[in-house]
């Protein structure tokens, strides 16, 4: 579960979040929907503990957090396979991590790219590696930042089914950032409009 209460964030001289209150229930899929640059990613970063708020309360429940970043953040000196193994390091025994890595590479159509380095891949393939790394953890909480960018319609459908399967099998709570409504329609996500900066948000709204 995610609970933010009256969270405010200033980056540099700009106020990005102002009085953000947000609750995402266990097993819920929720999408923060709005234009690029409005502050949606900062909400994810607060939830992940990468940005510390100026004020407010943050509560995140769950032992395993998977984060598919908008800018991929793959280790360029490692192969695709080793990037996934690095993400599983410390969570699984070596043999289980290796088996799960190969499974998720296959699910995202990356088996033939396993030995390649990220710099040799297209933007769409790097996005799939980024997603595979987050999904392979089978996390309690999954954060997805524009996860469907650079993907064709068939792969978007595949990723949506994988996310739904994780939710159904593992009870994964999912928080997505997107500016394309069609990209999240197949997930049955609760869509919360966001505008800013600064983002002022209360979900659920008082009285709901």
Overall morphology: globular
Low-confidence stretches: none
Radius of gyration, whole Å: 17 Å
The run of helices and strands is: EEEHEEHHHEHEHEE
Number of helices: 6
Q: Percent of residues in beta strands? A: 25-35%
Question: Quick one: biggest sheet?
Answer: 5 strands, parallel
N/C terminus separation: 18 Å
Alpha-beta classification: alpha/beta
Share of residues in helices: 25-40%
Query: Strand arrangement, largest sheet?
Result: 5-6-7-3-8
Concise structural overview:
The chain is an alpha/beta fold and 208 residues long.
Could you give the topology of this structure?
Layout: E1 2-11, E2 14-24, E3 29-33, H1 40-48, E4 55-60, E5 65-68, H2 80-88, H3 94-107, H4 123-136, E6 141-145, H5 153-170, E7 173-178, H6 181-184, E8 190-193, E9 199-203
Parallel strand pairs: 2-9, 3-7, 3-8, 5-6, 6-7
Antiparallel strand pairs: 1-2, 1-4
Helix pairs in contact: 2-3, 2-4, 3-4
Report on the structure:
The protein has 208 residues and is an alpha/beta fold. Helix content is 33%, strand content 27%. It contains six helices and nine strands; from the N terminus they run βββαββαααβαβαββ. The protein has helices spanning 40-48, 80-88, 94-107, 123-136, 153-170, 181-184, and strands at 2-11, 14-24, 29-33, 55-60, 65-68, 141-145, 173-178, 190-193, 199-203. The strands form two sheets. The protein has a five-stranded parallel beta sheet with strand order 5-6-7-3-8, sandwiched between helices. A four-stranded mixed beta sheet has the order 4-1-2-9, with helices on one face. Helix 2 (80-88) packs parallel to helix 4. The chain is globular, with a radius of gyration of 17 Å. The two termini are 18 Å apart. The model has no long low-confidence stretch (mean pLDDT 94).
